Amino acid sequence: MKRYFLPLFVVLLLASCQRTEPIVILYENDVHCAVEGYAKLAGQRDLERQQTPYVTLVSSGDFAQGNTVGSLTSGEAIVRIMNAVGYDYLTVGNHEFDYSVSQMEHLSQQLTGKMLCCNFSRITPDGESDLFPGYEVKKYGSTKVGFVGVATPSTFRSSTPTYFIDDEGNLLYDFHATDTYQCVQQAVDAARGEGAEIIIVLSHLGDDPEVAYSRGLIAATHGIDIVLDGHAHHLLNEKLANDRGDSVILASTATKFAYIGRLTIDKDNRLINELLPACDCKTINQTVWDTIQAVQHELEAKVNAPVGTSAFALADRDNKDNRLVRKQETNLGDFMADVARFTTGANIGVCNGGGLRAGLYKETITYGDIVSVWPFNNSMRVVECTGQQLLDALEVGVTALPLENGDFLHVSGLRYTVNPRIPTSVIWDENRMFDGVGSTRRIVKAEVFVPSHSEAFSQQSGLTSHSAAVSQQSGLTSHSAAVSLPYEQSGTWQPVNPDATYTIGGQSYIIANSGASGTFAKMHVLPLQGEPLNDVEAVCSYIRAMGGQINPIYRQPQKRITIL
Fold first, then answer.
1. Which pTM does this prediction carry?
2. Which domains does the chain possess?
């Protein structure tokens, strides 16, 4: 029998290619502008590099929005900090789109790390084209690792729907809601075809089973070793079976750097996943910290500018830290809905619970505090609608009760009663956008406030007269002394007339841009005259109109919403 021997130089060459050091993947998700954590993440990276040359930083999205650092710079300050950290791969979260698709593209171009997303494409007359590569294969010594990115199809409705359609309602972009899992499988197969031995999915899918979600992804695919998930803000480190019965890790670091994820791939390609409490990460990277401090200093004057005072909290949650604004009336919701009615001059003001991202808990309220409540850079707009459309909008907001729903509406100039024991009959289209209401309704009573001075409200039409105090073209009050604050008005409550016409004021996200699941999309948006009023500036205007101090009327909820 012949024996074949490799030349010595070939044996030495093969031995030199073998990877002996571990690969370390540090990861996070849903940072939402909690920028101090970036210095710890970079510090952890520095520590890992003392043990191995193979260290990679990745993000599963939702980094550009969350507080003033993101909102006041449309995400650009966040990208500046992330570039100081030195990311390798990222996927796009739904909140990266909050400043428009073009701004999202601009931010991704500014990032030194590579954006990956296999299920987001632009629709053109010539077909669809991917905005980002779906995957990339990276070599660590002798080992190839594939990174795949995937975004949640719910971005279409959880960001600003009108960003993704043209004026005729035609889709300009596609999140592949019906074939997300297939998009991921194709990217995984392609990466495997290029020799990837390990597949890591950077996922911003979350846990909503009504759309593509992370557990569903694992169950429907094969070839994935670990899914680093975002969107749901959960803390996860578990194993699930894929469609062939193989074990796949599902991991998530919660939100705002509560944890830093560390995935270790040892020399035998075994995966060890850990979640490190960020409070235990004591090492910081000084360069990153200096960048954070520089950014905060540049914004400090505007963020810390005092707007007014309050002797009590305007709360988004209870004293046990349970969030309330997406399922019941709060004094914060009443206050913000009054802001909408006052600054637009509409009959009714609305504010969706999902848009309230923080409460006002300090005695001195700063500009930055208000941005934290409404961080999305919306403007104030007005729609004209029928009473029936108004009732439908209320119905959409209570579909999930007693559970949370971001479409839950806080109201001003309106009060309603809901019975959550009645089955919801709201009808959704394929993108889970509002498409009608069936035979049953949870809203059992709804009344609109009619001011006693007839010139301000026509009982026949339900429209404001838009006198000298209110501009019919802009729908925005001039904030003159002639305009009463909502809680100062006298009048009567009358049942909502399905055939009457009303005006509703609120943020452009729900009023003009098909947010809140498209509830307001079929209503008539009143035209603007001049530049629209920014929503944060609207809050400042309302506080100034109160003389700089929140009126005690807001100490408790106003009993505008009754849940039976």
1. 0.72
2. 17-298 (3.60.21.10), 306-563 (3.90.780.10)
